[in-house]
Design a protein that fits this description.
Elements (H helix, E strand, L loop, with lengths): L2 E3 L18 E6 L9 E5 L7 E3 L16 H4 E8 L4 E2 L1 H4 L9 E5 L17 E2 L1 H9 L4 E4 L13 H8 L3 E4 L9 E9 L7 E9 L1
Parallel strand pairs: 5-7, 6-8, 7-9, 9-10
Antiparallel strand pairs: 1-12, 2-3, 4-10, 4-12, 5-11, 11-12
Helix pairs in contact: 3-4
Length: about 210
């Protein structure tokens, strides 16, 4: 069984959603300087890189990241090829989601992580697509860039629809080495008490 690491590495040079905190990683002690150990200071936002959006991100009194049941974040997942410019209801009607509660969308986004700056014209979900997923009982939705929502949105309808239904969103994945199909998902966000979201290490097995 092969393991695919679909997380992006945290680094000061990584893509960060505009307005979010920049990534700052500094060594505060170094073996090379005669210190007893290597120790680093880390500073970044809760929605940096590969991360989980808990309902509390957009829903008042919504479930926080430390309260997400692990059985939502571990289990069978359907990786769907969605290489279009937008993921709407029409593009989803041909996808068999009958036996799925978790879906991850692989798009052209997976190939923009190497760009020097944040890419604004990424593939996203429409509000109607989000409603379709909720209607079909989907509880985990993943995408291969930093938001399921259109850049510079008017209102966060996609997030509110998914998170308001109790679903969990995984953003910032890299699926460039993963073929569409069914896998086992293992997604473990940092256990931040009361957190609206958290960076995560996400892998697929299959």
């Amino acid at each position: 069984m092969k393991i695919y690491d679909i997380s992006v590495p945290l680094s000061p040079d990584m893509h960060v959603y505009p307005g979010d905190p920049a990534v700052d990683i500094q060594q505060t002690s170094r073996l090379a300087d005669g210190d007893v150990a290597n120790v680093s200071f880390l500073r970044f936002g809760s929605h940096t890189g590969t991360h989980v959006d808990a309902p509390a991100h957009f829903i008042e009194n919504g479930m926080t990241v430390d309260a997400i049941p692990l059985n939502l974040l571990i289990g069978r997942v359907h990786v769907v090829d969605a290489g279009s410019t937008v993921i709407d209801r029409e593009s989803l009607t041909g996808v068999d989601l009958a036996d799925d509660m978790r879906v991850i969308f692989k798009t052209r986004n997976s190939y923009v992580w190497g760009e020097p700056e944040f890419v604004r014209d990424f593939v996203y979900l429409t509000a109607d697509a989000a409603r379709y997923l909720v209607e079909n009982g989907i509880k985990v939705v993943g995408i291969d860039y930093l938001s399921v929502e259109k850049y510079n949105f008017d209102t966060p309808d996609v997030h509110r629809t998914l998170l308001g239904s109790g679903a969990v969103i995984i953003e910032g994945l890299n699926l460039s080495d993963v073929e569409p199909g069914h896998y086992e998902l293992i997604c473990l966000p940092l256990k931040i008490e009361g957190g609206d979201g958290a960076p995560a290490r996400v892998v697929l097995r299959g």
